[in-house]
Amino acid sequence: MNWIDLGSIEDVPLRGARLVKTPVGCVALFRTDEAEVFAASNRCPHKGGPLSEGIIHGQKVTCPLHNWVFDLNTGAALGEDGQIETFPVRVEAGRILLDGHAVGKRSAA
Amino acid sequence: MKQKLVVIGAGMASGRVLEHLTDAAPDTYDITIFNAEARGNYNRIMLSPVLSGEKTYEDIVTHDDTWYAERNITCRFGEHVVGIDRDAKTVAGENGAVAYDKLLIATGSAPFIIPVEGKDLPGVITYRDLDDTNAMIEAAEKGGKAVVIGGGLLGLEAAAGLAERGMDVTVLHLMGHLMERQLDEAAGYLLRRDLEKRGIKIITQASTAAILGEDRVEGVMLEDSTGLEADLVVMAVGIRPETRLATDAGLEVARGIEVNAQMQSKTDPDVYAVGECVEFDGHLFGLVAPLYDQAKIVAQGLLGETGAFVVKDVATKLKVTGCDLFSAGDFADAEGREDIVFRDPSRGIYKRLVIEDDRLIGAVMYGDTADGNWFFGLIKDGTEIDEMRETLIFGPAYQGGDTADPLSAVAALPPEAEICGCNGICKGTITDAIAEGATDLGSLRAKTKASASCGTCTGLVEQLLQVTLGDDFQMSAPQSVCGCTDLTHEDVRRLIKSQALKSQPAVWQELGWTTPNGCHVCRPAINFYLLADWPIEYKDDPQSRFVNERKHANIQKDGTFSVVPRMWGGITNADELRAIADAADKYDVPTVKVTGGQRIDLLGVKGEDLPHIWSDLNKAGLVSGHAYSKGLRTVKTCVGTDHCRFGTQDSTGLGIKLEKILWGSWTPHKLKLGVSGCPRNCAEATCKDIGIVCVDSGFQIGIGGAAGMDVKEVQPLIQVPTEEETIAVVLAVTQLYREHAKYLDRVYKWMAKVGLEWIQEQIGDLDTRRALVERFELSQSIYRKDPWAEQAKEPPKFAPLADLTLEAAE
Prior knowledge:
The complex is a heterodimer. Chain A has one domain (3-103): Rieske Iron-sulfur Protein (3-layer Sandwich). Chain A is mainly β. Chain A contains no helices and ten strands. Chain A has a four-stranded antiparallel β-sheet, with no helix packed on it. Chain A has a three-stranded antiparallel β-sheet with strand order 1-10-9, with no helix packed on it. Chain A has a three-stranded antiparallel β-sheet with strand order 5-6-7, with no helix packed on it. Chain B is α/β, with parallel strands linked by helices. Chain B folds into five domains: 3-110 and 241-302, FAD/NAD(P)-binding domain (3-Layer(bba) Sandwich), CATH 3.50.50.60; 124-237, FAD/NAD(P)-binding domain, CATH 3.50.50; 480-545, no CATH class; 548-624, Alpha-Beta Complex (Sulfite Reductase Hemoprotein, domain 2), CATH 3.90.480.10; 632-785, Sulfite Reductase Hemoprotein, domain 1, CATH 3.30.413.10. In chain B, helix 1 runs parallel beside helix 9, helix 12 packs across helix 14 (458-469) and helix 15 packs parallel to helix 17. Chain A binds chain B through residues 4, 6-7, 11-16, 18-23, 26, 29, 47-50, 53-58, 60, 62, 64-65, 67, 69, 96, 100, 103-106, 109, and chain B through 515-520, 523-524, 542-547, 550-551, 555, 557-559, 607, 797, 800-805, 807-808.
C-alpha cells in the first residue's frame, strides 16, 4: 500500500464526486456519506459516461448517460452485465488517502 | 368464385363486422360499402370529446382510406342508397347499382325530431354525426345562447361540449330529473348540480311548444309560455331506427328491422342487419357493447358458422369530464327490492345498490365510479351477495379481508370477467394477449380492442398489465415514485405540504423511504418538490440534480458539454455575437449551432473549461440560457409590430418581458414559451407549453402545447386585453404547474390529469391568480439569478482534485 493524501474530504461535496488523474486513467472519488469515500474508475463500461457526474445514492452511483447503477463496494453494475474497477481509499482525520500502487504509481511522492 | 357482399352504412357496427370478416377470411367476399356520410367508420362514441375540444376528428377515425384499400373494399362514401331489389339481388346507389349475394343493412338510427313549429329553421340541429358536431363547433365559435332539447346522455354531452366552447347553454328536459333512464333522482340531482356549477342552466319538466324565428332560429317557447332566446337549438330527444330502405324493400319491420338470433332478416336470410337499425326480440340497441356482439354474430353467419345473439345487460357512463357517473341494471323501486345507499355529501358521492333475492340487480353511482365494473359483473353473473352484503357498497377491495389495493381486486377477477364493456373483452382475452407479447397499452389495444372505444376502462387494462407482467410493466397510472417508496408522486407532493416536510432527510424519514438517501429517480423529484413548495426554507441540492442542472450545461455523448447563453426573446446584437465568436475560438468549440429556441449553442466544451467560458460570456452581458434545465427554456417571439406589417401587438417586447421575469425558475419539466404577433403564428406559439397569440383585441393565451415525442396544440386558457394581465396569467399558470404537477410531466400531461377546466377556474379567479403570482415572485426572489455568475463567485470544483500523472512521469 502506498497511501497518497489527495486533499480534504470537504473538497468533495456530500453525495458528490471529484476526479483524480492517474496513470491508469481518471479515477472518481465518490463521497457517499459525511466521512465515507469510494474510489472507482470514472468511465462507465456501457458508453463511456463520466460516472463522477452521476447521482450518488447509498453506496451507489448512477451513470448520467443511460442510468446504469454501480455498487461502489464491488464495482458491479446492478442489473446489467458490467463492472468498473475500484481502488482502495480511506479517510483519516478528514483527509482522503488513495492507494498509489493500485492506480499505477511506482513509489511514494 | 368470390361472393359479393354489399354493406349499407359505415358505422361502428358494420365496421366491426368488416374487421371480423377480413381478419378471419380476407378473400371470401368482394365487399362494397355505401355510406351517406362522405367518410368511413369513426368512433361515434367519441364525438362528445370532439365537440368539447378534447379530441379531433383525426383522433377518432377507426378506419381510414388505407384500411379499406388494404382490404380491397370498394367504398362508395357520400352516396345515398336509393333502393334494394331483393328479387334481382341488387342495391341501387345514386351512381348506379351493384349486385349482392349477401346484403348487410347497417343504416343505424335517425335522430327523433319533435314535431313542433320551427323545427326546420336554420340553426336547429341534431346530434348524431360528425357533420352535426362540426355544425355545433362552428355555431359555438360565434358564441351566444344555445338551447339543448333533451337531458339524456347525448343532450348532456352536447350541452357540456357547447358550454366548454363558451356558449351560454340551457338544457330542456321533459322529465323530472336528468337521464331518468339511467339515473335515479338522487344521482340526477348531483349531476344537475355539477352541470349547473359549470354554468349550464337546466329546466326539467319542460315541454317544448315551438321553435321561434324568422329566417333562422331565435328562440324556444315552452308549453308554459316561458320564452328562451337561442342562437342554436340542438335536438337530442332520442333516436329511432333508420328503417326506410328496409321497409321499401319489403322486409319485416316493427320499430326496427326484425332479425333472428343470427341477425338475419326474418323475411330474407340473405339480408343481414346490424346495429341501431335492428329490432331483436322486442329490443332496440343504442349502446355499443351489444352492437359489437351482433357484429360478431353477423361475421360468423357470413362465414357459414352459426352463432346466436343474446341480449345482455349494459352499463352506461357519461363522457363529460368531471361528471363521473355509472349506472347498470334495474333500479326502479319495487316490492321485494332493497337498497343499500352510501352518500358523502362533501365529496359529492352517491352510490346506490338495488338488491332482489340476495342478488344485485342494479347499481347507480355518482362521483366515484371506480367499482362500477365490479358491480356490473355481479349483476350480470347473478352472484349471490348474501355473505358480503355488509361491505358490498365499499366495493371489491373490502371483500374477503383484502386491503384496499386495486391491483389485488383486478388480480382476483375470474378470466371471464368483462373488462372492456364497449368491446365485450374479458380478462382472459387480455391476459392471453399479454402472454402473446402485447405488453403495453398500445399493442394490447391493437390486438384485443380492449379500452380502444370509449377508453374508460384504460385504468383497468393497465392494472391487468401490471398484475400480469409484474415489474416489467411501466404503469402510466398511479405508480410509486421509485423503488425507495410505495408512495406516488401525488402522495409525496401532498405529504410534503401537509406535514410541512422541508428537507430531503425529513421526507426520507417521515415518509418511510426504504433506502438511506433515495436514488437517481426520486432525488431530483423530491428536490424539485421541496424547492417549489418551500422556496425560502429549502436550499436547492446540486447533488440531487441531473448532471446538466448541476453543471449548468448539457452533457454530450462524449462527456463534453454544450453551452447556450440566453438571448432574450431571440434578440441579440453585434457585441454579443462577437463575444460568442471569441469564446468559440478561445475554447476550441468544434460546433456552433443555431437552436430552435432562437439562440446559439456552443457544443463540445470541456467540463473544466465551463467556469472560464461562462466568465467570458458574462463579461459581454450574456447569462445562462438554462438550455439544460427543467425550468424556463426560451420565449420564442416574432418581430410583431416592430417590423411586421401584420403584427397586432409588440410580441417581441412581451416575449422579452416574460423571459426576464420567468428565467431561472424551476418547473417540473422544461417550460417553453412562444409569443406570436398575429394568428399567422410565426413564433409557433401554439405548440409551446405556454403560447400567446396576439390579436387586435388582446392576447390569446393557450397552454399544453408540445412538439417533441408527442405533438400537441395548445388548448385555449383565456384571452385577456392587456399585456400586464397576460404576464400575470402566465406567471400564475406557471406557478400552478410548479405547485401541482408531477416531476417530469410537461404542461400537457399535467393538464390531461387535472383538466383544463380546473386550471381555468384557478386562473379565472382573480384572488387565486394574484396569490399564485405572489408565490411565484417569492420563489423567484431566490432563483432569478444567473447560475453562471453564481458559480464564478464561488469557484466550482470542476477541476480534478489531484493529478497523479505528472509525478508518475518524473
